[in-house]
Here is the input.
Amino acid sequence: MGRAVTLATGAEARITNGGGGGRAVVLVNGGQRREVAGTWSTTLEFLVGRLAPAFPSLEFVEVRYRVKSWRRLDSCIEDTRAAVAAGGGGRTLLLGFSMGGAVAIASSAEPGVEGVLGLAPWIPDRLDLGPLRGKRLDIVHGSLDRALPGIPGVSPESSLRGFERAREAGIAGSYTLLRGGLHGIALRAGGLMLPLPRAGAWLDAVAARLERFAA
Here is the structure.
């Protein structure tokens, strides 16, 4: 488990690997309508636990928002910008899961940020994509992702619409649809972290992007 630090905003971050190469991956979580205290993301923790050993030159910075709600999106963006600064301000890749996709895009104008990797990202039609100019936007989305009663989700059609808006604005990137993928990569049950279907394919897709970033 990484070391915990308090960010300038009062949010928390968990840093894994010492870095040393001046490159950081800042990982930001999803959210919900109700304004509740931030938590660590099981999906992001799963990714870091399996990918950090394979990329020792990268510093992984997981963000725990003060409040994880899309009704407090500005607060989540402030927390993410503070995490970019805590990562040393060097070359940075923002990795956003679910609502974290919108948070990462809005934070991508920070110094040193080279691009955004969105995992099942929420990209609302009203979201300004201007901060992405000169960056990359790569998206990976599960084909079976849907919002269901009591179960969060983001449709791949929604993220594809956001990606196409970005392409029309001249932003480079890629869109990968994972057949059989759900919303998220892992969940907790009975104190255990359990991978969801297609977790291996998610890991491979993220690792491929990290290899380009680490090169």
Remarks:
- Residues 199-214 form the longest helix (16 residues).
- The radius of gyration is 15 Å.
